Amino acid sequence: MEDARSVARGAVAQRVADLYEALAADDAEWVPLLVAHDPDALIIGSDGKEWWHGYDRIARGWDAAKRANGGTRLESGELVVWSRDSVAWAADEVSFSLASGVRGTLRLTMVFVEDGESLDLVHLHASAPVPNTEL
Question: d(Cα 92, Cα 95) in Å, to the nearest integer?
């Protein structure tokens, strides 16, 4: 049962869907609409160079990634959403496809914060599942 004071899980699932749709775009013009303008926001991508701490670095990082790779199409697998008070988090195992034709699976965790009328992404971590024997 959802606590009435918590962010509605349906709103979080919709925000995740908005993020997936935005990531399919060939540009990063969507970043100011979805990502918290917070110096402590953090995006950790699957590439070793994708550690973007703070809104400005996130905006620059996603812009560079979009120029280099184009859009990334994501198809939700088993989205799990939870919330407490004004904080919500989600996890998903997605199928992805890049403009280059590369396809695969990623595991995503995301944290959102509700601030008045908006629900903003403050953290995302993407990882590619590999067997422990390959680490």
Answer: 10
